[in-house]
Design a protein that fits this description.
Layout (H helix, E strand, L loop, with lengths): L6 E10 L2 E10 L2 E10 L27 E2 L1 H14 L2 E7 L4 E13 L2 E12 L6 H5 L2 E7 L9 E3 L8 E3 L4
Parallel strand pairs: 4-5
Antiparallel strand pairs: 1-2, 2-3, 5-6, 6-7, 7-8, 8-9, 9-10
């Protein structure tokens, strides 16, 4: 028996000089989620007045919004950085949560691919009851040794709620 879900997700980052405007929208059957972040010179503190503390969530403090990048910039940097060396660490603000992504070199070569691991670490804004699960998220990224074309990168994970083994088709 199969289950099919219809959803639509849109994400964009608009760069103007040293400012990034990040927008995210996800539409599911009877649900719509919108996130917005405005980041200038790596500082997202101008978003602080709009961030309301919710019961059961980690509280965001103003200093958490320093030295951040948006999620799409992080993805681009991770995909480009891994070819040279798997050494990436950055704090991300998606308009709702702040987290750190770390790309670690596993020192493994498998079938002409260098294997690196992307780890997620919570900072603030997340559901407290999900903290342990979030901090255990790992995504293995396979970078081809003979090409720097990102369409040849693939991902693998064993996360039960998000089975992911796909080929990137973004160029």
């Amino acid at each position: 028996m199969g289950f099919f879900y219809k959803f639509e997700t849109l994400a964009s980052s608009l760069f103007v000089k040293n400012t990034v405007e990040y927008n995210y929208k996800r539409i599911k059957k009877n649900y719509e989620k919108k996130l917005y972040a405005f980041i200038t010179h790596g500082n997202a503190q101008n978003n602080f007045p709009n961030l309301k503390h919710r019961h059961g969530y980690s509280k965001i403090i103003k200093s958490d919004l320093n030295n951040v990048i948006d999620p799409l910039t992080a993805v681009k940097q991770i995909l480009k950085t891994g070819y040279k060396k798997c050494n990436f660490k950055s704090k991300i603000f998606d308009g709702e949560e702040i987290y750190i992504l770390k790309l670690i070199d596993n020192q493994i070569i498998k079938n002409s691919y260098k294997v690196c691991t992307l780890k997620y670490q919570t900072v603030s804004g997340h559901k407290l009851k999900r903290e342990k699960k979030l901090n255990n998220l790992k995504l293995h990224i396979y970078y081809p040794l003979d090409s720097s074309d990102i369409s040849n990168i693939y991902f693998k994970t064993t996360i039960k709620s998000l089975p992911l083994k796909m080929i990137s088709t973004t160029k």
